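pinned: reference chain
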Amino acid sequence: MAVIRVEQVCKSFVTTQSPWALIKKHLFNSVNVPYFQALKGISFHAEAGETIGIVGHNGSGKSTLLQIICGVMQPDSGKVTVEGRVAALLELGSGFNPEFTGRENVYFNAMLLGLSRQEVDASFDQVVAFSGIGDFLEQPVKTYSSGMMLRLAFSVIIHSNPQILIVDEALAVGDEAFQRKCYARLKQLQAAGVTLLFVSHSAGQVIELCDRAVLLDHGEMLMIGEPKQVVHHYHKLLHMEQGERERFRLHLQQFGHTDSYVPTDEESENSPAPVISEAVFNAELQPETTVWYSSRGAVLSAPHLQNLNGEKVNLLESGQRYRYCYHVTFEQDAFEVGFGMMIKTLSGIPISGATTTRNHQHRIPFVAAGSCFTIKFEFVCALRNGTYFLNCGCSALINGEREFLHRGVDVAMFQVIAESEDATGMIDLCAGFMAEEV
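pinned: its structure tokens
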């Protein structure tokens, strides 16, 4: 049974600041007033217990759509039907009075969500324990950090016994430990049959949590379907040139509303085939914690990942082969030169790496000053969905001791967005399985 129905929803906003233009718009429905159309005929439904992710670039209409579904905003045309108790975290701190304490805001927000005071009393200790704000509970919310405010707001929402939970990217504010805690709780709510609708820029989260995903672009719904497929097309769309992008948008609008579309021969001949690069790269996926150490005779630069076609990528699929590349320019002569790499988790735990320093056949006996090299480490991505960071380094013998000539930490990052359904843990061992009845 569908608990959320969105039918041909449109929404526009006047973009002028002129009060006279606004009066003309509202009194005379003037068509000459400049406006921005945020949503254009959006239609989809969510079944009870289903989790739907909404993806799209900034300004594609994601937040506007969620606000209309929650009733915070009314559409210009179209219809939205929602059945069940809705809890929403649309904007950090929304519904909180900064002058009131954390305790007071817990009660006010929970009651706004439909709970009685007795119900809030019964769950209050659980709310506080999950939020982890401790001694700040009796302090005004205006003294809270954004992370503390998020923890308290999310804790109130998930303890309000919602039948429908709507979250708009707010969890991105929290630290990694709290994010893991939130996603574990979301899994519990999913198991309990709660319908979940959320916006996220994290491909791994959408693929892991969602049953279906919706792709919005410039206010239009381009496709709805299997999360991995939707995320894959979303990232392709982000980095296409304008002409290529328009052809691909047309293709998705025509054929992207089903998971199982196979074009007929006639359709294939008549429809423009989108020119799509196999590289999947998100330009916004850049590390903010990069550290380059001092150079001692060499300079490393341009660290990046490639697929086997030589195209730059940072959204990887488990089981596929990739190359980690970087350039090295030598400013001084160097002896017994070696190179290395390391992959780390989001929390900094080293997972796996490679080095050429231990095997004399892989070391370079002598490199003259002025020489330049491109280093390539080829590997199979054996990781589960998640975000990972890369280190790089170059070393040589100096006065009989191996020393780094240059190295960098967190110089590049990537996400694994497609994993094996048979793997568990962090590493995909590609383990075989058989069951023999005896």
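why pinned: The longest strand covers residues 401-418. The mean pLDDT is 84.
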